[in-house]
Amino acid sequence: MQNYTRLLNHTEDYIENHLDQKITLADVASNIHMSKYHFHRLFHNYSKETLYQFVTRIKLERSAMFLRVRKEISITDIALRYGYNDAPSYNRAFRRHFGITPTAFRKAQDMPSNKDSNHL
User: Fold this and answer.
1) Which three-class secondary structure state does DSSP give residue 85?
2) What is the pLDDT along the chain (120 residues), one digit of tens a residue?
3) Greatest CA separation for the chain
4) Alpha carbon of 56 to those of 13, 22, 59, 63, 111: distances in Å?
5) What are phi and psi of 98, to 5 degrees?
6) Can you tell me the distance from the alpha carbon of 108 to that of 110, in angstroms, rounded to the nearest whole number?
């Protein structure tokens, strides 16, 4: 169990360090010296998502943080930074995951919350 946990931690590190690239099952499995078939079973067993789902979720969550704090950077540049080929494919993936477009998400971060306005 501990060896598998260590392997999965190395997998997460690899993914974090390659968010700007297309990450394949073969790449990740090779990085930890395991067959892609065994790695896929292992990863899915411990994470309850496929590698593709995990990578997509991590890219979108990290990009959402980036959208929030780096407002001077365009959405297209953020899409490219997180491995998307263009803004439209990033927008579709973002909307599927969060239920809102990156533009609307960014604008919503600028709006004061109801809680804040009650104290004014």
Assistant:
1) coil
2) 567 778 788 888 999 999 888 899 999 999 988 999 999 888 888 888 888 899 999 999 999 999 999 989 999 999 999 989 999 999 999 999 999 999 999 988 776 654 444 443
3) 59
4) 15, 10, 5, 10, 27
5) -105, -15
6) 5
